[in-house]
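hiii, so i know i said id send this last week but things got crazy w the move. better late than never?? heres the sequnce for the chain we talked about at the cafe, plus the structure i predicted for it. fair warning i was half asleep when i ran it
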Amino acid sequence: MIPLGKADIDEKEINLVVDVLKSGWLAHGPKTKEFEQMFADYIGTKHALSVNSCTSALHLVVEALEIKGDVILPSFTFVASANAVVTAGANPVFVDIEKDTRNINPDEIEKRITDKTSAIMPVHYAGHPCDMKRIMEIAESHDLVVIEDSAECIGGMQDSKIAGSFGIGCFSFYPTKNITTGEGGMITTNDDELADKLRTMKAHGITSSAFEREKMERPWIRAATTAGYNMRLCDVNAAIGIEQMKKLDEMNRKRIEAAAYLNKHLTNEKLTRPVVRNGYKHVFQMYTILLDSSINRTEFVKHLRTEGIQASVHFDPPVHLQPYYAQIGWKKGDFPVTEHVSENIVTLPMFPSIKRDELDLIIQSINSFLE
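okay and structure toks below
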């Protein structure tokens, strides 16, 4: 079976994890700090704060900014984006997407802005950044916060500016992402005050870590300044992240090459290939195709799986049609582009180590079904 995704883990990650296990600092120690600095340097922000998931990152940012109004985001996303808005005490307001990039449509954002709007949460789908230049212009003209859900876009760029550095970035290190720590996430920001608040919130409301307190005269003093959470990343996970960061660009290069090969050979008019807009770097966390509506997608995916290809769908149903969100008022027909894409999209295997013969099997299997 060609897996949908496969983490690129080798002896370097394994050896560094062993070093951490032997060091005695398994959690909230020097490797976490090292990983955060590497990530901040890569994204180009003053701060990077590691957390245990992208969902935690999104939740913490919404809560730290004390957002209680509307947050505009696409319905075509993993439900965690909207869940984080709700659990942090704000109100998700969905908008439609662009059919070609599957990203939030800036024109639709402007239509939804009211005096209740507090923030915009663009979601960079599958590795292609949203139109952040336009989104930032909209946000600035309406004095809105921008929280980038960059879970699927570590290394993607618009005009040489990296995703997660336009607004406040939130990233995922789940095994299928551009880098992995097993589970984990990161927040990036240039705001010193926000960074300090987030550090405190993610660690029980305590302003210093155990590693930092060991250098103090009374390291046992742990005084909470607010009611916080335990949303930290441990050093074992951070060790994996350190080695992953060293090869991120190479792993993204391999993804881009594999996607180009698929684009070259998947030419059947009954499918639409992913686009890369001029001025953008698409890092292909996922490779998705859009089937013609005449194709039975269920049968198509079953065919690929029978052929040993672990195809899937991201995302169906869209968030506004999932039971919790449907019962609060969203309904079918609200977002026609989102619903069309959701009903016809297919995710194909994509990972750095995917082989040419595996790509050829994917191409052959798709063509045989469509023809």
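btw The mean pLDDT is 96. thought thatd interest u
miss u guys!!
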